[in-house]
Amino acid sequence: MTSTRMAVRRRAHSGAVTLKDVAERAGVAPITVSRALNAPDSVSAALRAQVEEAVSALGYVRNQYAGALASAASRIIPVIVPSLSNAVFIEVIQGIQQVLEEAGYQPLLGNTQYDLDRESKLVATLLGWSPAGLIVAGMRHAERTRTLLRGYGRPLVEIMELGARPIDMNVGLSHVRAGETMGQHLVERGYRQIGFIGGRLKQDYRAAQRYRGLDQALAAAGLARRPPFEHDQKSSAQVGGNALMATLEAAPELDALFFANDDLAVGALLRAQREGIVVPARVAIAGFNGLEISALTTPPLTTIVSPRQQIGEIAARKLLGRIQGHASGPARIDVGFRLEVRAST
Amino acid sequence: MTSTRMAVRRRAHSGAVTLKDVAERAGVAPITVSRALNAPDSVSAALRAQVEEAVSALGYVRNQYAGALASAASRIIPVIVPSLSNAVFIEVIQGIQQVLEEAGYQPLLGNTQYDLDRESKLVATLLGWSPAGLIVAGMRHAERTRTLLRGYGRPLVEIMELGARPIDMNVGLSHVRAGETMGQHLVERGYRQIGFIGGRLKQDYRAAQRYRGLDQALAAAGLARRPPFEHDQKSSAQVGGNALMATLEAAPELDALFFANDDLAVGALLRAQREGIVVPARVAIAGFNGLEISALTTPPLTTIVSPRQQIGEIAARKLLGRIQGHASGPARIDVGFRLEVRAST
DNA sequence: CTGAAAGCGCTTACAG
DNA sequence: CTGAAAGCGCTTACAG
């Protein structure tokens, strides 16, 4: 007794409504549905209407994987940042998101946690999404990351800082010059014992660049140079307040403090107030970023304003420009910064 | 004269290294490479080594689209929030990201900008990624969104607030009770003319719920009830300061103000200080969220601490639990809140 | 303007 | 443990 068996091959099949279902209902070929959806003008009004009816009747949702696989093009743009707990990157991401979304692209967030090995793995994974382009914070990468990105060959923007050798495009500002500018300001104001406070400067190397700029300014003015007063915690107002107290105890001769960022500096300012330390009479305090709250403290904080959201917007626009094939200006854009002198110095 | 033409069909082809390339180099079938990568134990050590060599020699990166299409399973988890300019959602996202990433899932960020129509479109688009599950902030949705989500049938967590009828799972806290708790606190402290300040309460309906809770507490205490003092701007410290001044001018009889969130309340506190308005002697100030900085102002701010990052973590864990098929406790989790009484009231 | 065929790069379901 | 075949749901490249 032989039994005839039909080879019934079953596949995962999501059970979702497909193009084919829509096509059947509309009485057209699947490709026509595809056209009606992707290039409505290339289809007659009558068919377009039938397709639209079928799409909404069936609740059709395009399968992004099938589309991207078939066309070898995706609207994914990975955005790789070192941290999400820093307001700065959030604002950059906001700028990016706004621009990308309008153009129908999806940002895919990657968080390296200031770890270049993690970055490398992230990049490898994210390239599997055949992204139309990428945005990466920072210009320091593992060699392997660099190789991957170069080999990938699609548009890439490195953001936040400026570098001599971008892999492709570059949008940011010079943190060394920002630090130098603040240093010159403090010197001009007459401060003579100037210190820098920051955390994890090996990882947050842009903060280290600001320190370097400050140091150059101090050297140029013939003033005492000091290593940074470094702590080992994530920046926060609380940490800034503690750092202020610790530093003034360790080096009471200081008459001005440049904090690595406004989170720290605002915290220092609030702490000074609680402790009765008069700013700037006892010690001047300065920050970096230009967070909104820095203008509202008593005294308001002298800081350097960086155009964070704008960095995101410009980077996204440059990327889209290249993706869509039209030239988009120079490969390297210095967005600059602005020294905001307020009463804390 | 007839010419024979080979039908040379060309396709987009990304030019990237594929499984097939790896298989050829390793001298095995593509499916073996797939196995060596996805289930290493199912392949002999020798072949595994050959495959690994080929993968790294060629720099192979898995094509996520092909994989997801073939297996009808993706490791994408859309996370839909109403805003990115609010620190609260950032912290929630951080919690989610941490948990998802460890498990090898990718969050895909959607921003509704407090617009339920946008939300609906976003959900439709994001479902095209065949997500393994979804996380959505809020329990108010357009009917169409609800239909899409119900129809999709995969695990879903609605977060931030608690509702009687979650579509699937629910992780959050009761904003009405939070408002009520603050109201009772202010009443107990002896304040008698208590106002609520917030913006865009139609959209930010969770803030409106806190107002409602406050109003209930005032009613229960037999105190004067007032409509909220509403402005039309995004919450920020600057806006909070302005709202303080405007409200005290409009209603000088007020002796306590409950702000919709800490961004506003901290701004009000800083502004009061600059203007010489003594808190809480002239007017008490309270907030909601428990942002770090609220503890550092002078006076420090009385507020309600919500476990933001925890909401994200719990939501992500519950989702993964369901995705991976093991039960994961109750469908509804009240993460609670904590009244933090400080010197501003 | 419309369609039949082939293919994108994987994984599933069988088979041995 | 390993592999040949089929299929996931789209779009490209032709053809008419």
Task: Walk me through this protein's architecture.
The structure is a homodimer of 345-residue chains. Chain A has helices at 19-26, 30-38, 45-58, 64-71, 87-102, 116-127, 143-152, 175-188, 205-220, 237-250, 262-275, 308-323, and strands at 76-81, 106-111, 134-137, 156-161, 169-173, 194-199, 229-231, 256-259, 284-286, 303-305, 332-334, 338-340. In chain A, the strands form 3 sheets. A 6-stranded parallel beta sheet of chain A has the order 2-1-3-4-5-11, sandwiched between helices. Chain A folds into 3 domains: 19-62, no CATH class; 74-173 and 309-335, Rossmann fold; 175-305, Response regulator (Rossmann fold), CATH 3.40.50. Residues 1-9 of chain A have low confidence and may be disordered. Chain A is an alpha/beta fold. Chain A is elongated, with a radius of gyration of 27 Å. Chain A has 12 helices and 12 strands. Chain A starts with 18 loop residues before the first helix and ends in a 5-residue tail after the last strand. The longest helix of chain A is centred in the first third of the chain and has 16 residues, at 87-102. In chain A, β3, α7 and β4 form a beta-alpha-beta unit. Chain A binds a DNA duplex (16 and 16 nucleotides) through α2 and α4. Chains A, B: Residues 17-71 form the HTH lacI-type domain. Chains A, B: This is LacI family DNA-binding transcriptional regulator. Chains A, B: Keywords: DNA-binding, Transcription, Transcription regulation. Chains A, B: InterPro entries: HTH_LacI, LacI/GalR-like_sensor, Lambda_DNA-bd_dom_sf, Peripla_BP_I.
